[in-house]
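User: Hey, my collaborator sent me this sequence without any context and asked if I could get a structure. I don't really work with proteins. Can you help?
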Amino acid sequence: MLLRPDDIVGVTKQRGAYMAEEIEDGGSAFPETHYGFNSMGDIHSIGFPGISLRDYFAGQALTGYLARVHCHPGEAVNEAYFFADEMIARRQKRD
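Assistant: No problem. I've predicted the 3D structure and written it out in structure-token form, which is a compact way to encode the shape of the chain:
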């Protein structure tokens, strides 16, 4: 069975198109800044946000979940993002 957008947490259908809801993503998990010099010899930086913390947590949860449970891909994705959202919520309570 193919994974449908309806199977994924945080995706809603509006006017025939699928759009993501506003979901707290926890910020960047692995942001990077690269420095270099331009032709005038001035230093400049370029920032790359990296993967969101929510996606990182979901990926880690998905790996563990699939190691123990055989299920429909949509169910696995929903569970992974459920755990990711719980981890982000717990971090926000701590802060």
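In plain terms: Residues 11-19 have pLDDT under 50 and may be disordered. You can pass these tokens on to your collaborator as they are.
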